C-alpha cells in the first residue's frame, strides 16, 4: 500500500517548469522518431474524436434550416449563428434564458454554499479532537459511495409529503450536500493548515470561527476551488433529480429543458434547430469556468490523489 | 459520477487505525473537548443537511419498500399497510429489472476497461518525453467533460442518425440505433465524455511520482514502455482503482443517456437500465415497488464497488 502525502507538502514537477524543462529537452531527442511519431498519431486521431462532435455542433448551430441538410455538414455555409441565437432566445418568451439562469442558480448557488459547509465540516474534522469524529468521517465516506440517483426517488416521496415538489428548493436543497467535499477538505486541511498558525491566531485573540474565515480558508483555497468546481459540474449535469421533481417548465435547468424539447422534435420540427443551438450555448459556461479556474483545480485535484 | 481522485482506501485505513489503537489502550481519563461551540458551528450545517438529504431518504426508501397498497374492494380507498418483504419478492421475480442489471453489467465489463485503458494510455503519453504540445492535448481531451450527459447524448443522437448525421456514408449502412448496437452507441457517448476526466486524475497521480525514481531506470537503459509498465503503473495503481470504482458506480446508475436515446431509437425500452426501471415504476405510480428497486440497486452498487476495492487491495498486498 502506498502512503498518502498530500500535495501541498511536496513540490511537483508540474509546477516547476523551469526545473523540469531543461533536462527534458535532450531526453526528448534521445527517443526514437518512430515512437514519437506513433505517440503523435495516437493523440492526433483522438483529438479528432473528441473535438469533431463539438465542431459539428458549432457548424450546425450556425446554419439556417434550409442549409442544414444540403451543405457540407462539417463546414460553414451562410453564417447565421447570431440570428439563430436571437430566434432561440425569443422563442416562447425567452424560456431558454430562464433555463440557463435556473442552471446558474442551482449550480452556482448550490456549489458555493455546498463548498462552504463541506469546507467547514472537513476543517473541523481535521483540526479539532472530539468524540464521534471518526464516526462522522466514516459515515460521510460511506456517503461518497451512495449514488445520488438512488436518493432521488425517496427525496421525491418525502418532498411530496410536505408539498415541496415542483419548487426551486426541491432541486436546490439536496444539491448542497457533498460528502466528497468534506473528504477532500479534511485531507487538505490536515496537510496544509499548520496547527501553529491556528494557535498564533488564538493567541492574538481571534475566535475559532473568525480564524477559519480569515486564516485557514486562504490556505485551503485549492481544495475549495476543486470542490466548488466538481460540485458545480455535478449539479449542472444533474438530470434525474430535476426530472423527477419538476413539472413547471419555468423551473427547469437547461439540461432538462433541452431534453424536453428534444423529445418533442417529431411533433414540432422547429425545435430541432433550437435544441442544437441551445446545446452549443449550454456548454460554453462550463468551458469558461474550467479555463478560468484551471490553475486552482489542477493543484487541488492532485491533493486528493494518491502518491 | 462526479468526484475526482481521492484515496478512499487510504483514508479508510488511517481512519480505522486510531480507533483500534484506542481500544487496546487503557481508557484515558475523560478530557474536556476544547472549543465545543466552534466545532458545532462547523459541523452542524453539513451534518443537518447530510442527515436530511442523505440519511433520511435512505431510511424512508427502506420504509416505503416494506409497505404494500391494500384496497377495499375494486373501487375502495387505497391504504398502505405493512407488507414485510413482499415488494422484494416482486423485485426478485421481475424479469425486466434483472435484464436491465445484466445489460449495465455487460456495458460495464466492456466500457469501463476501454475507457480507463484509453485514459491510462493518454496520461502516460502526456507524462512521457515523447510528446510535444501537452497543454493542447490535455485541454482538448478534457473539453467533453464540460458537456452534460444529456447534451452529449442529444448531440451523438444526431451524429448516429441515418439521415441527419454528418457521417451519413457510415450511418446509412450501419444502424447505430438498432437493438443490437444501441447499448454500445451509448457506451461510446459515455466514453467520449469521461475519458479526459479520468485521464486527468491518472495524470495528476503520475505528476506526483518523483522523477528520480525513473531517472535511475532510464540510466539503466530502460525504454519508455518499460518504465511505464514497471515503474509508473504500479505506483499509480491506487488512482486507477479509484477511477474504476467511480466508473462502476456511474455505470450502474446510467439514466440520462438512455433516457435521451429513447427519442432517437425505439430499441431503448422503458426498463433499459435499472434507474430507468425505477423511474418508470415510480411514474405508474407504484412507489413501494420503485423504492424496493432503489434499495436493491443502491445495495448492489455499494457491494460491487466495495468488493472491487477489497479485491484490489488484497492483490496489492500480495
Automatic annotation (TrEMBL), chain B:
Main location class: membrane
PROSITE patterns: ABC_TM1
Annotated region (Disordered), positions in chain: 1-23
One Gene Ontology CC term in the entry: plasma membrane
Transmembrane segments: 39-63, 104-127, 139-161, 181-209, 235-256, 289-309
Compartments it resides in: Cell membrane
UniProt-listed GO biological process terms: transmembrane transport
InterPro entries named in the record: MetI-like, MetI-like_sf, UgpAE/MalFG_permease
Every ABC transmembrane type-1 domain range: 101-308
Membrane-protein topology: Multi-pass membrane protein
Domain of life of the native organism: Bacteria
One Pfam assignment: BPD_transp_1
CDD domains in the cross-refs: TM_PBP2
Keyword line: Cell membrane, Membrane, Transmembrane, Transmembrane helix, Transport
Protein family according to the UniProt entry: Belongs to the binding-protein-dependent transport system permease family.
Protein name: Sugar ABC transporter permease
The organism of origin for this protein: Cryobacterium fucosi
Lineage of producing organism: Bacteria, Bacillati, Actinomycetota, Actinomycetes, Micrococcales
